[in-house]
Amino acid sequence: MKLVEDRLPDIVTAGTGIVSQALRLVRASRWDLVVMGLSFDGRSGLDVLQSIKEHHPTLRVLVLSAHAEGLYARRCFRAGAAGFVTSDSSRTDLIGAIQTVMSGVRYVSPHVTETTGVNAASRGARPAARLLSDRELEVMRLLAWGKRVDEIAALLSVTTRAVRTYRGRVIRKLAVETA
Description:
The chain contains ten helices and six strands; from the N terminus they run H-H-E-E-E-H-E-H-E-H-E-H-H-H-H-H. The protein has helices at residues 2-5, 19-28, 45-55, 69-79, 91-102, 110-123, 128-131, 134-144, 149-156, 160-174; strands spanning 33-36, 39-40, 43-44, 60-65, 83-86, 107-108.
């Protein structure tokens, strides 16, 4: 968070990419804001966000993610995020998002509003990602990255049978054909 510390001198940061450490950090201190990504080892970032909000419902969470806004922003807000910004956003946008969330207002970038609202409505059909549950989307993402069913099962702490079930649902809901 060095990029914002220069402009927000009263900020104190701590960070980790390990789920257990992240949850321990949140529980151990009184934070005003958590800025988190969606990629953790062994667990979905959406699961981590939900866990944080279960234990600290009033804690503000800003998601800073490399994942596509259209796929994840709406899910993050549903899970309790106070804002969503992509990692390719400018420093000014990130600082603005932090300040907006800290003022108690939900931060939604114009791009998120445009891609999740206007475009989805104008096409007349539900975007494919909205057809999938959070777990189905996570399985689809991992499959797209070339992960095997057993690897996905280990990453998500579920059985291989469950992963196959999610994969089948994705194929059915998106009406895709397999090779």
